[in-house]
Amino acid sequence: MNTATRASIVSVVQVPLFVAAWLLFEYLFVGPLAFAYLVLFAGGFTLWWFSLRKAMIDPQKVIVPYLLTVIMFIAHVYEEYKAHLLGFPDIVKGAPFPISFEMMLTFAASFAPIIWLLGAVLLLKRQPLGFFIASTFLFGMMFIEPTHFIAPFSEGDGFHYVGGLFTAALPTAAGWYTFLAMRREMRRAPEAVA
User: Fold this and answer.
1) 132-157 burial, b for 16+ CB within 10 Å, e for fewer?
2) Which helix H or strand E contains 102, and what residues bound it?
3) Considering the entire predicted model, what is its pTM?
4) How far is CA 131 from CA 2, 17, 120, 142, in A?
5) CA–CA separation, 19 and 17 (whole Å)
6) pLDDT tens per residue across span 157-167
7) Comparing 17-31, 75-89, 154-168, which segment has the lowest mean pLDDT?
């Protein structure tokens, strides 16, 4: 059994355990808002399953764009919270339950950077769970962040500013760039899982 196959088997066990633990951890602090991670984890799992699970890439080749994407995400979250403090509409305005400013601050400005940086650490340690977390992060940047461009039209009262609109393109573009860099490294990887 080659190293990539062994890592894949271990990660198939680690990933659901990590997801359950992270959801429980988040739920303790932000209640039902933690379940927003379900979409991220499902998308991240799909991205990971069909890409990074198949090859152990050299994380040194992609860590800089990954960390720059995290930085752009943090700057984007700052815009979201500054807009909230100034009274502009939030992208979560139509949430099915009340979301307090403290919950959002804990969720996106504190715990999200922690998990994305944990992914970077685990990537550098070449742990399969790190590749899953990276895939989850990139899925969010590539497919969830662009919803900031749809939200201004979703309320039926014409285009208007929502928190995060101006900077959403930064983590989106950086996420795509990082994912494409990872795909390029996958093509160069010596071991792949069938």
Assistant:
1) bbbbbbbbbbbbbbeebeebbeeeee
2) helix 101-104
3) 0.90
4) 18, 15, 9, 16
5) 6
6) 778 888 899 99
7) 154-168
